[in-house]
Design brief:
single chain, 6 helices, 166 residues, mainly alpha
Length: 166
């Protein structure tokens, strides 16, 4: 395998998950997956798991299911950004990679909400961007704790922040 081929493979491995994650977000940002279209399938699944629910009860449940999806979906997207920056910037500190991942996630969330304001039947809101970024921060903190506890060697090569005594 040539050097240029390895280089292409590296970039593909590092950044393809980010591109795919943004693609999933773009697909979810269509009218096809609006609240109006997801209510029935989510309700059927919910009732199969937890039993019947009235129309009055279903509204808030559906709302929280969708917002949980925002939180977790963008949290997972942030982890793909974090991994890509971790691979791309091997000498950076974890905090730098996490900040860049949060920035990429926030830009994606903002673009998604802006796009939704242009679609009939969809609404874009800054509150969703806040939920998305909260998910990103939370999952990145959990990743840091996981690395700190079970992969301490990986973090020894990268400090959480730069040391003043370096």
């Amino acid at each position: 395998m040539s050097s240029s081929q390895r280089r292409f493979d590296f970039w593909l491995r590092a950044w393809l998950p980010v591109v795919l994650g943004i693609g999933v977000i773009a697909l979810e940002s269509t009218n096809l997956l609006s609240a109006e279209h997801t209510s029935r399938p989510f309700r059927m699944l919910y009732q199969a798991l937890f039993g019947p629910v009235s129309d009055v009860e279903w509204g808030p449940i559906h709302f929280y299911i969708r917002k949980t999806g925002h939180f977790l979906g963008y949290g997972m997207l942030a982890l793909t950004w974090l991994r890509a920056w971790w691979m791309t910037l091997p000498k950076s500190v974890f905090l730098t990679d996490a900040f860049l991942a949060l920035l990429g996630t926030a830009m994606t969330a903002s673009a998604d909400e802006l796009h939704q304001t242009l679609l009939p039947g969809r609404t874009g809101t800054p509150w969703d961007v806040l939920i998305d970024c909260s998910g990103a921060i939370t999952l990145q903190l959990l990743m840091y704790l996981w690395l700190r506890i079970w992969k301490a060697e990986a973090l020894k090569r990268r400090r959480f922040t730069t040391s003043l005594q370096s």
